Amino acid sequence: MSTKKIVITGGPGTGKTSLIDSLEELGYTCLPEISRQVTLQARNEGVEQLFLTDPLLFSKKLLEGRKDQFFESQTFDRDIIFIDRGLPDVLAYMDFIGDEYPQYFIDICEEHKYDQVFILPPWEAIYTSDSERYENFEQAVRIHDYLEASYRKYGYDLISVPLASIKDRVEFILSHSK
Questions:
Q1: The domain 4-176: what is its CATH number?
Q2: Nearest CA to 11 among 108, 103, 107, 127?
């Protein structure tokens, strides 16, 4: 059986984690967002905001972690696995800040393809900041645009998840998962 790898992406504060948590509660296998882990690990090593201090190193760590998740997703005996952010997210954020990245970043995105991608649009009513989320809402909107461009660059047809309750968003995703 081939497990379908479905990414849930979107700018900061769009409700991705809440959706992933709800899908897990329903019994679906989900792989979590890893950027907070990378941020907290760097903080434990004395770097307050690795993404701001060394965006390329931060992005390399994310890319490797997400590539590991891609391969991990193939080890589950499930019809569907949901992944909180995918490989093209890394390039979208690098493009957002205007930093260059090595060719192998692009190669990884071209070589490792997901089956489906859902994108959550910016939603000011639910947006909040915290110690790992440094962007304001206007930046979150711009990041959304970069995410759309990055995924489209790698040939994905994005499915936009409507602004609705978590329950309705989960039902939308499940009814549109192929």
A1: 3.40.50.300
A2: 127
